[in-house]
Design a protein that fits this description.
alpha+beta; three-stranded antiparallel beta sheet; two-stranded antiparallel sheet; 5 strands; 20% strand
Length: 131
């Protein structure tokens, strides 16, 4: 699976394309890069309506591999080193989105499944016992 990063893209386009593939994952874009296992500063989060031309340090475009066997760390690395964009993969945990700092080496499939399971457990309501 791949997503296309065009010269005219805005952050929301990329986020939407990614979340179409992985509904329990999200990409967040930040002003500063981070190392594997580190969190990004919430104050540096970039709004979704921002054109990538305004924030990237490399002016390249093209396809980015987001296959299910790739890890969050690999995706973040590719965005940074191939596209000049600082991103953080987040996974769904109930109604919250959590940065993958402790799970950077999990595959996108594992992270997406974990988010799906977390939502099911949080929103699972057993039926009332029959009388």
């Amino acid at each position: 699976m791949e997503i296309y990063i065009s010269e005219e893209a805005v952050i929301a386009n990329i986020q939407s394309d990614f979340q179409e593939i992985y509904p329990f994952l999200q990409l967040a874009f930040y002003q500063q890069p981070h190392e594997v296992g580190e969190a990004c500063c919430p104050q540096e989060k970039i709004p979704p309506e921002t054109p990538i031309e305004d924030i990237r340090i490399m002016h390249t475009f093209g396809w980015l591999d987001v296959s299910k066997h790739r890890t969050a760390a690999e995706i973040e690395h590719d965005f940074r080193h191939r596209m000049g964009l600082s991103v953080q993969v987040l996974h769904k945990s109930g109604e919250m989105w959590v940065q993958t700092t402790k799970t950077d080496y999990w595959t996108l499939q594992q992270l997406n499944e974990e988010g799906k399971l977390a939502e099911q457990h949080i929103f699972f309501y057993p039926e009332e016992p029959a009388e």
